[in-house]
């Protein structure tokens, strides 16, 4: 653009030194303040020249103002001068006026409407150079209103005799279609005839115009598909033509036109067998004869590959396209490697076997120095994992995980987890793989990793001994990886008795004492690296060990009591609840802290994003009602407890089953019946009956749930329970779990009633 100003200056000034002198002075300024001072003085002089009218210096002053505009300074006061110069009969002034209009005006400014008539007149000018100025300006900044007014003129110029005008009129028509799509039909007949032009510039513009017409209006596809043989012939001519210095780029004949034709063929051949068959031979010829050692050749080959993959091409041709992308992976240019992997990722699902042949090269790209190339290689490597290559691919991915940049660790870990879950050859291999990831990048895994691994461990009953030994070793070696520590604590709490036996066929056992285990858990509790959630896992594991060891129960009681005054409220609450089990409900402790049952991986809160699974109901063939004790005769309370650690909030839960008796003492019976259960809601009915000699009056029931669960208690059927089992009192309770944090459940149920 600055070159145009210099050329214009040479034609309007004698001698042309003032603009050059201004540029020299501005460039010699040492500070921004000095530069602004020079610009202000020059702008004042330019304003003065504009006010003097037609003195022969207007075009020179506007040229200087355009240079000021290029430096980023305000130049809006020159807009009207552009309008005046465009209307000038002199070509030199018209030229700088149109240049100024393209730089200073846009379609949002009212001043742009003032040049519409001048453009229309110049489009009919006898000089093709004046016509070209008007065409360039309209194509650059023409508004929708200007396009509507001047579209017939552009359509007329598409049939002009000069190739120079046709080329510019074609590109102007493209701008008009983009601004006013409904005008596309006006240019459709002329666009078809332009394909017979021999001039490369006109051909290029015609292909761009037809491409725009096909993309904007799918109805024109039928008409232009008839031109596929003609496009094929043009493309063959470019591929087989001899050396032409005018259009040759690095040995490739007019690669810009080739790319445009291939792009148009891709549109015309999409979902059309006839058009696809007509271009198959051409695409094979281009794919085999184009030199990929130069960037221009790589660009043509890349468009060829995209066209082959998007049309109804033959299977052999698609394999050839994948092989071209495979060669791109060996290119020294990182940009070419990047677009190659991007393209392979798009077709890996449809041409999986063809892409698999290049698996080794793709894996090698994981070692590239460029992070963006690594990311693409990682995504493609994960897409290539299958049941056949799971072991070899996982080995490479685990190596990459240990050396990959921090911003890729989370993505790598998630990809490994998903692949392992989908294709794991055995549960032991699956567990080992996840533990390897947690050991390497435990701080970069997603939140659901811990509950998912816990679920996996519970289902592999034959590996409980192996897993607890391996996790114990990992725990005493490093407690920095929080996810690994949480799983280790959970596993030790559940299967600590297996660890103490020291018998394991799957792994060399270690001799562990009760004190060793408690020392490890206390280290986690006291470590500054442990998060509150991790401490919760450790405290709960310590509590569960109270039913699995025999000699250190008092030490466990002491550890738990310490955290009853912890500053962390969640940890404090757990400690208080566990202290209550020791002091008031010790007879219930063994039942409450028994091992967790097998957990369904599709339960809400334990998925990888899939919430379509149903909640698995526990086995009720052998119900284990929880015992309860009365604290006082007139106002009795009962705590109904169960246990779950699948969530980070390891709270005391009662599991909802279809019907379970939760309290039966002194003639009062209370049952919980599950009426309805969805992913987020549970509806239960509390049923109270009285087998004593007297009615129970003023019966009320109170319930409390975790913060993540919403509780709604309906009105009870009454507050008097008839004697001799002659009636019941029922109350419906709605539990809503909008965040799907865990199974809807009670934490505490408190009963208050009076006996008559």
From TrEMBL:
Membrane topology, as annotated: Peripheral membrane protein
Residue ranges with Basic and acidic residues bias: 613-625
PANTHER family: ADAPTIN, ALPHA/GAMMA/EPSILON (PTHR22780)
Protein's cellular compartments: Cytoplasmic vesicle membrane; Endomembrane system; Golgi apparatus
Record GO biological process: intracellular protein transport; vesicle-mediated transport
Main location: membrane
Organism the protein comes from: Cyprinus carpio (Common carp)
Matching InterPro entries: Adaptor_Complx_Large_Subunit, AP1_complex_gsu, ARM-like, ARM-type_fold, Clathrin/coatomer_adapt-like_N, Clathrin_a/b/g-adaptin_app_Ig, Clathrin_app_Ig-like_sf, GAE_dom
Keywords attached to this entry: Cytoplasmic vesicle, Golgi apparatus, Membrane, Protein transport, Transport
Region Disordered, residue ranges: 598-627
Family membership noted in the UniProt record: Belongs to the adaptor complexes large subunit family.
Name listed for the protein in its UniProt record: AP-1 complex subunit gamma
Residue span(s) of domain GAE: 655-756
Signal sequence range: none
Superkingdom of source: Eukaryota
Gene Ontology CC annotations of this record: AP-1 adaptor complex
